[in-house]
Amino acid sequence: MNELTRQIYLLRARLRRDELWTTDFVLTLLAGHFMFAGYTATLTIIPPFAIDLGGDLAYHLPLIVAAFGFVGLAIRPFGGQWIYTLGPKRVAIIGTIIVALGSLSYIFALSAWWLIPMRMLQGVGLALGPVATSTIVANLAPPTRRAEAMAYMGNAINISFLYSPFIASFLYENAGSHNAFLFSAIAASIGTAACCRISTSRIAFERPPPSPGGDAG
Q: What pTM does this model have?
């Protein structure tokens, strides 16, 4: 009987060690999902909005897209460093807030040129947020299920592509651009709320020490 009890205890300990679907993991999936719901909502409404503001489809839109990509390339390496100094939760919160503010800023655009700095602002958020949420997922997942956890995060993000652009386009055509961008901002704000609920202690980590001889040569 004692041996059976010991085996049950060991089994429970192993299950706890390999547990993936914790509250913090689900919150992180929600944070990533709604952050991208806010972003993907803009994919189908930025082009017609730029044209409505007098922009040129062949001139302004490539600049808007390029500005977003350029900022992502420039900021993302710093985002990785800030995770060590600020913590992944804070960086995720900052990233999702910036995505929401970027969506709100479009409401005040007066010309297609205004969309370039506004898109760059949102690019900062999308450079920080995914790096932070991916870090959180990797830290929360048991080593034996880490790849599985990253796959779930990918699916959580992809689901946003299934409905968010459609809803944004519907709102743009039937309720105006203001409501479409407001939907985008609200979605990203839900991601912020999910980030705020993640346990800081469970995802805390320190910068790994440099490997011996790492500076050699």
A: 0.87
Architecture (CATH level 2) of domain 21-199: Up-down Bundle (1.20)
Q: Which two tokens stand for residue 63?
A: 């600049």
Look up tokens 């993991």; give the residue.
25
Supply angle C-alpha 202, 156, 198, rounded to 5.
20
Rounded CA separation 193/89 (Å): 11
Neighbours of 12 (CB within 10 A): 10
- Which pLDDT score, from 0 to 100, does residue 56 have? 86
Instruction: Tell me the pLDDT tens digit for each residue of 6-57.
Output: 555 444 445 455 789 999 999 999 999 999 999 999 999 999 999 999 998 7
C-alpha–C-alpha distance, residues 148 and 206, integer Å = 24
Sketch the domain layout of the chain as residue ranges: 21-199
